[in-house]
Design goal:
Blueprint (H helix, E strand, L loop, with lengths): L12 H11 L2 H8 L6 H11 L18 E3 L2 E3 L3 E3 L5 H4 L3 H12 L4 E2 L7 H7 L5 E4 L5 H13 L5 E4 L9 H6 L9 H8 L2 H10 L20 H9 L5 H10 L4 E6 L2 H10 L3 E4 L14 H11 L4 E4 L6 H9 L4 E4 L1 H10 L3 H20 L18
Parallel strand pairs: 3-10, 4-5, 5-6, 6-7, 7-8, 8-9, 9-10
Antiparallel strand pairs: 1-2
Helix pairs in contact: 1-16, 5-17, 15-17, 16-17
The protein binds flavin mononucleotide.
The site of flavin mononucleotide has 22 residues, from helix 2.
Length: about 375
C-alpha cells in the first residue's frame, strides 16, 4: 500500500462515484448510493452544507496549519473518519479490510459496522487495534453481552451505538432490485454481475459477502428469506434511554451515540453518560423529510459542546464541507459513501487516495482561511449563513 497514493484522474468524490458506478453491479451501487423514499433527503443534506460560508483573515500573522485533532487520548492526523457502512464487501470485495488498513496507516478512525462483511476480530488485527466498533443494540441480551465481550477482547478503543434505525428505511432502489445478502441469483442480478467482470472475479476469489461479525449468532444454513426476521431479532433492540443503559453498564470505554438530530436526544445521551454524539441522519437513508444535521449542529455544539463531544456526518463530500462542519462547531466529522466510492473506483489504493485527497482539500481551506488549528475554524464562520 503506497501511503502517498493520489490519482489525479479523480480529484473529487464525484469523479470516484462515476468510476465506481461503472465497476459495480447496479444492485450494489444502488444500495450504496440510495436514500429512502423519494430521496429528497440526499439533496437536503447537500444544500445545507453547501450554504455554509467561511471568511478568511488574510493579513493576520500566519505560519502553518495543523490538521490534527485529539479524541479520547489519541491524536488523529485529520479531523475526519470513515463512518460505519454495512455490507461493504458487497459493493467491492474486501472493502472493510482495505479501508481499515488505510485508515490505520494514515491515522484516522475507521468505524466497523455490526453488519459488516468482515469479522470484528479480523478488522481489529488489520487496524492494529485502532478501528472503532459500531453497535446496533441487539434485542437478545445474550447476543449483546457476547458481542460486547468480543469487542472488548479484540481491544477496540471506542464503541459507537447507532440509534437512528428503529425501522428499516423504505428504499425504493433496494426493493426494486430485490436486494438480499448474499445477492439472489435472479437473471437480472446475474446479468449485472457478468457486466462487471473485475467485481465478479474478485468476489469469486474472496467468496460471497456474508455478515461475518454476526455469523456466530445465525442459525446454520439459514435460508435467505429468513434474514429479515433474524435481523429484526438481532439488531433492532431498544434505543431509548432504558434500552441503552445495559450497554453503558457493560462498556467501560468511550461511548458515542450516533444518529441524533434532536436536542432532547443529546440531553438523553448526556444523562446516559455518553462521551460523544454523532449528529447524523444516516446519510438520508431513514427519514426522507428529516432535517440536515448541519442545521441543528450549530445550536447543539453551542449549548452542549462543553458537556459532550459533538461529531457530525451525512452529505459531506469534500474539504470545504469538512471545514464548514467544523466551523459550525463539530469536534470531528465522518463520511460514509465517499470512501466506498474510492475503493469501488480504485480497489486497494482507493482508501488511501480518498483520505489523501480529502486531507489536501481540507488543508488548502485551512491555509486559505489562515487557520492554524482545527479549533480556530469557528472564528471563520459567517454565522448568518447557518441560520
Ligand atoms: C450503504 C450504507 C450502509 C450504512 N450502514 C450503516 C451501518 O451499518 N451502521 C451505521 O451506524 N450507519 C450506517 N450507515 C450510515 C453511515 O454510517 C453514515 O451515517 C452516512 O453514510 C453518512 O452520510 P454520507 O454517506 O452522505 O457521508 C450506512 C450508510 C450507507 C450509505
Amino acid at each position: 500500500m503506497d501511503l502517498n497514493y493520489f490519482n489525479p484522474k479523480y480529484p473529487s468524490v464525484a469523479d470516484l462515484k462515476v468510476a465506481a458506478k461503472k465497476r459495480m453491479p447496479s444492485f450494489a451501487f444502488d444500495y450504496l448510493e440510495g436514500g429512502c423514499n423519494q430521496e429528497v433527503g440526499l439533496q437536503t443534506n447537500r444544500k445545507a452544507i453547501e450554504s455554509v460560508q467561511l471568511r478568511s483573515e488574510l493579513m493576520k500573522p500566519f505560519s502553518s496549519s495543523s490538521l490534527e485533532v485529539e479524541l479520547f487520548g489519541h491524536t488523529y492526523s485529520a479531523p475526519f473518519g470513515i463512518a460505519p457502512v454495512g455490507l461493504q464487501g458487497l459493493m467491492w470485495p474486501k472493502t472493510p479490510e482495505i479501508l481499515a488498513e488505510s485508515a490505520a496507516k494514515l491515522n484516522i478512525p475507521f468505524v466497523l459496522s455490526t453488519v459488516s462483511s468482515a469479522s470484528l476480530e479480523s478488522i481489529a488485527e488489520i487496524s492494529e487495534g485502532k478501528a472503532w466498533f459500531q453497535l446496533y443494540n441487539p434485542t437478545d441480551a445474550d447476543i449483546r453481552k457476547s458481542l460486547l465481550k468480543r469487542v472488548e477482547q479484540a481491544h477496540y478503543p471506542v464503541l459507537v451505538v447507532t440509534v437512528d434505525v428503529p425501522t428499516f428505511g423504505f428504499r425504493h432502489r433496494d426493493i426494486r432490485n430485490g436486494l438480499s445478502i448474499p445477492p439472489k441469483m435472479t437473471i437480472k442480478n446475474v446479468i449485472q454481475m457478468l457486466a462487471n467482470p473485475t467485481w465478479l472475479l474478485e468476489t469469486a476469489l474472496v467468496g460471497k459477502p456474508e455478515m461475518q461479525t454476526l455469523k456466530p449468532y445465525m442459525p446454520k444454513n439459514m435460508p435467505v428469506d429468513q434474514l429479515a426476521e433474524f435481523m429484526n431479532n438481532t439488531v433492532m433492540g431498544r434505543v431509548d434511554l432504558e434500552g441503552l443503559k445495559p450497554i453503558r453498564d457493560l462498556w467501560k470505554g468511550p461511548l458515542i451515540i450516533k444518529g441524533l438530530i434532536n436536542e432532547k436526544d443529546v440531553e438523553a445521551s448526556i444523562s446516559l453518560g455518553a462521551d460523544a454524539v454523532v449528529i447524523s441522519n444516516h446519510g438520508a437513508r431513514q427519514l426522507d423529510r428529516g432535517e440536515a444535521p448541519i442545521k441543528p449542529l450549530f445550536n447543539i455544539s453551542k449549548k452542549y459542546g462543553k458537556q459532550i463531544k459533538v461529531f457530525v456526518d451525512s452529505g459531506l463530500r469534500n474539504g470545504p464541507d469538512i471545514a464548514s462542519a467544523l466551523a459550525c462547531g463539530a469536534d470531528f466529522t465522518f463520511l460514509g459513501r465517499p470512501f466506498v466510492y474510492g475503493v469501488g473506483a480504485l480497489g486497494k489504493q482507493g482508501g488511501v487516495h480518498t483520505i489523501n485527497s480529502l486531507s489536501s482539500q481540507f488543508e488548502q481551506v485551512m491555509r486559505q482561511l489562515r487557520c492554524h488549528s482545527v479549533s480556530e475554524l469557528p472564528q471563520h464562520l459567517i454565522v448568518d449563513s447557518v441560520k
